[in-house]
Specification:
Blueprint (H helix, E strand, L loop, with lengths): L5 H15 L1 H13 L7 H17 L3 E5 L14 E5 L5 E10 L2 E5 L6 H6 L4 E3 L1 H9 L11 E7 L4 E7 L1 H7 E7 L9 E6 L4 E6 L11 E5 L7 E3 L5 E2 L4 H10 L4 H22 L4
Parallel strand pairs: 3-6
Antiparallel strand pairs: 1-2, 2-3, 4-11, 5-8, 6-7, 7-12, 7-13, 8-9, 9-10, 10-11
Helix pairs in contact: 1-2, 2-3
Length: about 280
């Protein structure tokens, strides 16, 4: 990525904040993954509003807006939140992904261009010039511009991580692209990208009409492709379930807005307390 890439600047600042105030990010991630006690997919949607609010409350040079599901069909790219750098005025979209440790979808490739482009080549693509031609092709135009913020968890070990895929390193280190056929539970073939040490980087899955969202697009794997991730949380961190939060939700759903307003005031007071402890001005 370019040095002045606004998303890279944001993730660098988030990484710095996580190192200075680990309790704030741990508390937020613990609350997000606690939502899995309510439903297996609940945490994903709530992660969007949680991270947006985390930015607004604790990152004084940034502001965030939750895009919401109503605008989904009008989105020109994958976007869950919009972030504004208050200093540079840069505005950029971010897609939140809350996934278990393992396969991670980076892009749905909704225009279905990546896989058909690779099909025009041989089953194995090697050589710097040939690989550069692939990455410079319009079908791969967004490869370096997918702002995905993955919140990764290992529920069994109760560990979590924010792992950002390094697209530039992936492009620079790709030594071969290989079509691997069906099998191992796959209905369709995939194109896998490997580095010079034959280490897995990422893959492009089938993009035809018969493929669903989990069978197409650009994917990687947080276990197999770890060399191509940067940990915003500076490694794996322990998280714990906040069962009081589940009680709060259940009670809030059967109480009135007057009760919600009262509870919100108490929560705002607690956020101020956390800011004072951390010495955050915002």
């Amino acid at each position: 990525m370019e040095q002045n890439d606004p998303y890279k600047d944001f993730t660098s600042r988030l990484k710095l904040m996580a190192s200075k105030f680990p309790d704030l990010i741990t508390t937020t991630l613990s609350n997000i993954f606690t939502m899995r006690l309510i439903g297996n997919k609940t945490h994903g949607d709530l992660a969007e509003i949680a991270i947006a609010e985390f930015i607004n409350q604790y990152m004084y040079d940034f502001r965030s807006i939750h895009v919401g599901k109503d605008l989904y069909r009008a989105k020109s790219r994958e976007e869950d939140i919009t972030i504004i750098n208050e200093v540079t005025k840069d505005k950029f979209p971010v897609s939140l992904k809350a996934y278990g440790d393992g396969p991670l979808q980076l892009s749905t490739d909704k225009h279905m261009r990546m896989f058909p482009r690779l099909e025009k080549e041989s089953d194995e693509i090697t050589g710097k010039e040939n690989i550069a031609k692939i990455f410079n092709d319009p079908a791969f135009e967004e490869f370096s511009h997918i702002n995905v913020l993955p919140l990764i968890y290992n529920e069994k070990k109760q560990l979590c991580n924010i792992l950002v895929f390094d697209y530039e390193r992936a492009k620079q280190q790709t030594a071969r692209i290989v079509q691997e056929n069906k099998g191992h539970g796959r209905k369709h073939p995939v194109y896998r990208f490997y580095d010079g040490n034959d280490k897995y980087i990422c893959e492009v899955r089938y993009g035809g009409a018969s493929a669903n969202a989990l069978q197409r697009g650009l994917w990687t794997n947080t276990k197999n492709g770890l060399n191509y991730f940067d940990s915003v949380t500076n490694g794996w961190i322990d998280y714990s379930h906040n069962k009081i939060l589940v009680q709060l939700f259940s009670h809030a759903l059967v109480s009135s807005s007057a009760g919600h307003e009262s509870a919100l005031e108490k929560i705002k007071e607690d956020i101020i307390r956390l800011k004072q402890i951390a010495g955050i001005r915002k």
